[in-house]
Design brief:
mainly alpha
Length: 418
């Protein structure tokens, strides 16, 4: 998504803190046929939503280097940053509803989130040194850089999913933790904990959602108001652009880090959460529910998320974003089109086949064989093809549902999340 390291501070056009994403969205891609092992078909709605969301991610990262002085683009950028990552996190939470600590699901969490995190954190750090000429040659797995924060956060969120299912009022508790995170500058960049905590309510909200909630926002009667909200959002973004500190939208620091009084942190947590939920609901209301040309691309969004950062950073390091005419309205339009085309290409099957070893590694050799269980004769075995039910397959599929990834090859019970 952008050029700078992960924390832009109060800079007017701070290069977004690498969003991710990454994105857990994905469960390892499901069967090529589009049906899960249980035979249930994927819901095109979720894959369409994931594809459109990853395009918004690419827009945000490519706009950051060229939006200085362009008030309209700054406003649009703020609108996108208010909800696009919360949308991914909410979807990841929805597909994590059935996550537990069964060995099969822990394995998927390791191969789908932990291993890609280690590989891409290392790759981005080396790229920063080799292509960007950075003097910082360290590779710290405790300090996520650029896009990799999402995988780190997803791992933490997923591990806590069973706890949230036991809490009587999970969302208020998660909001309370997020507010505490917004006034704790001492956490620094370790595991990007400020962002992990401030996005936590979005993940917990996803855990609390049911398929009927998605059907509710997809009703025809909701689409017109949703379209009106999206039409008004850029206007509001343009009007507020000069006074908005984009650091609040990145959610990667405490109020004190932004030069604000401590009490502003909890207030902004509630404000940005409310805005994110509203715009995410409107976004989902406008997502097509039918199979389209881009539907299949929705199963590869984790690839688009993790790989497009190399393109954005490469262009930044080459100095091409400094070309004066790119900062004009026509130049910004060209950047937007190219960003869309780039991330679309990175979600295609040929690219996924090449990079599957890093994004969805098969690591049976690294784990012990599970002993047969008495119920292993039932369809689906331990994890069975039971991906439909409560969104289980996606949730079980470790790291790739994360970034709105594909999902274990099944759509969530009827409504899902992309």
């Amino acid at each position: 998504m952008f050029h700078a390291a992960s924390s832009p501070g109060q800079n007017r056009t701070p290069l977004p803190p690498a969003q991710a994403p990454v994105p857990e969205g994905p469960v390892p891609d499901g069967p090529r046929s589009g049906a899960g092992r249980s035979g249930k078909q994927r819901d095109p709605f979720f894959d369409n939503a994931k594809y459109l969301a990853i395009v918004l991610v690419a827009w945000g990262h490519s706009w950051a280097p060229v939006m200085s002085g362009n008030r309209f683009l700054e406003g649009a950028y703020n609108v996108v940053y208010l909800f696009h990552m919360p949308a991914f996190v909410i979807i990841s939470g929805f597909f994590s509803r059935d996550f537990d600590l069964r060995p099969s699901r822990v394995k998927r969490l390791i191969t789908g989130v932990v291993v890609p995190y280690v590989l891409f954190e290392t790759a981005y750090s080396l790229f920063r040194v080799i292509a960007g000429g950075s003097g910082d040659r360290s590779v710290s797995l405790l300090s996520p850089w650029y896009l990799t924060w999402f995988l780190c956060a997803l791992f933490i969120w997923r591990l806590t999913a069973p706890v949230w299912k036991l809490v009587r009022h999970p969302l208020p508790v998660a909001l309370g933790i997020a507010m505490l995170g917004s006034v704790s500058p001492a956490m620094g960049g370790t595991l990007d904990l400020p962002r992990v905590l401030q996005f936590l309510p979005c993940f917990v909200l996803g855990l609390c959602l049911k398929p009927e909630h998605f059907r509710l926002v997809r009703r025809r009667s909701v689409r017109l108001p949703a379209a009106a909200v999206f039409a008004a959002a850029p206007v509001l973004g343009w009007w507020t652009a000069p006074s908005v500190n984009t650091g609040w939208l990145y959610r990667n620091g405490a109020a004190q880090d932004l030069g604000a009084p401590w009490w502003a942190g909890p207030v902004m947590v509630l404000v940005t959460f409310a805005g994110a939920v509203l715009l995410t609901g409107c976004f989902l209301a406008l997502v097509p529910g039918r199979r389209m040309w881009c539907t299949a691309l929705g199963t590869g969004t984790l690839y688009g998320y993790l790989l497009h950062g190399f393109v954005v950073k490469g262009v930044l390091y080459a100095g091409w974003f400094e070309t004066p005419w790119l900062h004009s309205p026509l130049g910004a339009l060209l950047v937007t089109v190219l960003a869309s085309a780039c991330v679309t290409l990175l979600c295609t099957r040929p690219v996924r086949e090449v990079f599957r070893f890093a994004v969805e590694p098969r690591m049976e050799w690294a784990f012990r064989r599970e002993p047969a269980r008495p119920d292993s004769g039932r369809a689906g075995g331990v994890d069975g093809g039971h991906s439909g039910g409560k969104g289980g397959g996606h949730a079980a599929g470790a790291g790739h549902e994360a970034l709105a990834g594909a999902g274990a090859g099944t759509a969530a019970a009827g409504a899902g999340a992309a």
